[in-house]
Design goal:
two-stranded antiparallel sheet; alpha+beta; 11-stranded antiparallel β-sheet; about 300 residues; 4 helices
C-alpha cells in the first residue's frame, strides 16, 4: 500500500510541474506579443512600446530635418479617357531652414498650371499636405490627437514591419467636426496606416489620406522612405491615383519626389527667394550631399 501511494505521489508531482511550466510559457506569450526579427538584438516589444518608440523617432526626425536642404518636385495631374492628361500642376522647390528653424521655400520651376481648365483648383490646404502631412505621419506631440491600433506584421520588401491603423480622434467627435466645418478648417490630419521597421522602429511607409473633408477632396496616397543618413528614414517618394468625388468625379494622379538631401555644415543664410527658371543653371551647392543607404532603399510604384 505504501509503495503504491509513493508511486501515485510522484506521478502527481510530475504532472504538477509540467502544468506549471505550460502555464508560465502561456503567460509569457501574452506579456510579449511582438518579437523583433533583428539578428543584432533579441529584444521584444509590446505594441505600446513600439508606438512610443516610433513616435519619438518621428519627433527627432522633424528636428533633424531642419539640418537638411532638399528638392521637392510636386506633380498633380487630371486624367481623362484612356488616362490622357487633361490638366496638370507642377512645381519644383528647394526647401531650407534658417537659423531660427523656419522653413524657407525657393521655387525653382513652376510652369503655368492648367488644372483650372478642367475645373480643379489647388488650395492652400493641398499645398500644406504636399509639404507637411504626406511626408510625415505621427510624432509624439501629435499622438494625443490620434487613436493608434496594432494591426499585425507584414513583410515590405526585405523589411519586417509592424503595421498600425491611425485614426484622428476628431473624426468621431461630431461637435469638433462641426466647429471645423464652420471655420473652414480642412485637411488638418492624417488617416490611414503606417509600417514600422522592426529593427530601427521607424516609419518606412505611410498610406492613407488627409482629413477631414468638407467642400474639398484629398487623394489617397502612399509615401515611401529611405535610410538617408544611416540613422533616420527620410521621405523620398509619394504616389497617389484616386477619383475625387465633386459634382462630377475627377480622376487625379499625384507624384511627389523628395531628393538631393544635403546636410548643412554651417548656419544657413538666406539672401533671396527669386525663381530660378532653369534648374540646370544653378551654381553647385557647396554642402555635402548625403547618398541613400543602398541596402535599405524603398521600391517605387
Amino acid at each position: 500500500m505504501k509503495k503504491r501511494f509513493l508511486v501515485l505521489f510522484l506521478v502527481v508531482c510530475l504532472l504538477g510541474t509540467i502544468l506549471s511550466a505550460f502555464a508560465q510559457d502561456k503567460k509569457n506569450s501574452r506579456e510579449v506579443p511582438l518579437q523583433t526579427n533583428s539578428q543584432v538584438s533579441n529584444k521584444s516589444y509590446t505594441p505600446d512600446e513600439v508606438i512610443r518608440r516610433f513616435t519619438t523617432k518621428e519627433s527627432e526626425l522633424r528636428e533633424v530635418f531642419k539640418d537638411y536642404s532638399y528638392l521637392q518636385e510636386s506633380r498633380l495631374q487630371v486624367l481623362g479617357p484612356a488616362n490622357t492628361i487633361s490638366g496638370e500642376y507642377f512645381q519644383a522647390s528647394e526647401f531650407v531652414f534658417d537659423d531660427a528653424g523656419k522653413r524657407i521655400e525657393r521655387i525653382v520651376r513652376a510652369p503655368q498650371s492648367t488644372l483650372d481648365q478642367v475645373g480643379l483648383n489647388l488650395t492652400q490646404e493641398d499645398k500644406n499636405a504636399f509639404i507637411n502631412l504626406q511626408p510625415f505621419a505621427l510624432t509624439s506631440e501629435d499622438l494625443p490627437n490620434y487613436n493608434v491600433n496594432f494591426v499585425g506584421k507584414e513583410k515590405v520588401d526585405e523589411l519586417n514591419t509592424y503595421v498600425f491603423e491611425i485614426i484622428p480622434k476628431v473624426m468621431s467627435n461630431t461637435r469638433e467636426l462641426d466647429r471645423m466645418r464652420k471655420q473652414k478648417v480642412e485637411g488638418k490630419y492624417f488617416q490611414g496606416r503606417i509600417w514600422v521597421d522592426d529593427q530601427d522602429l521607424q516609419i518606412v511607409k505611410t498610406a492613407g489620406k488627409v482629413v477631414p473633408e468638407f467642400t474639398q477632396r484629398f487623394p489617397k496616397f502612399e509615401t515611401y522612405r529611405e535610410n538617408i543618413d544611416g540613422r533616420y528614414w527620410f521621405p523620398t517618394y509619394t504616389y497617389g491615383d484616386d477619383v475625387l468625388q465633386f459634382d462630377r468625379p475627377i480622376h487625379v494622379r499625384m507624384v511627389i519626389k523628395y531628393k538631393n538631401y544635403r546636410q548643412f555644415q554651417s548656419d544657413v543664410k538666406i539672401t533671396g527667394v527669386d525663381e530660378v527658371p532653369d534648374d540646370s543653371k544653378k551654381p553647385e551647392d557647396q554642402n555635402k550631399t548625403i547618398e541613400p543607404n543602398k541596402p535599405k532603399q524603398r521600391p517605387r510604384p
